[in-house]
Amino acid sequence: MQLIRTALNDAVTNCDFLLEGRNQVTTPPIGTEIKLYSDHYSNCHERFQPGDHVKLYALSYDPTKNVTTSAPLAVALEASGEYYFWPSWTHDFDSSIINLVPEQPTSIEILNFQWPDTGTATESGLKFYSALLSDDQSSVRGHFDMVAFEFGP
Asked: What is the pTM for the complete model shown?
């Protein structure tokens, strides 16, 4: 939990860094991006409705020219002030070791499902976070990412 709070405190700095280079062709820094897709939109503030096809991917990068390495990937869902960690989707911190291919993005499918019928229920301010972690999982490696979404009829 503290790791996420620390990462969130650095979010403005990291976002500013990423936006400054948006018009330049550069090698992405080490880190991860989270991409949320539906039938109608891609990677923006989503509003999911019953029947929408939802896909969530983590794209991780290692720009070094070293051999393939591995790193823990952490993905969290924040909902109503609670955190759920992939791949177990429980409150207990969890992560998964992924292989990083030098100078190529590594795409990991996190979710792929059809949004259920939630009746008249609505919720906003839901967020997914992704980060590559140090081997001992005590710090974030490179940049992390966040995408917000909501659901309702």
From this structure: 0.76
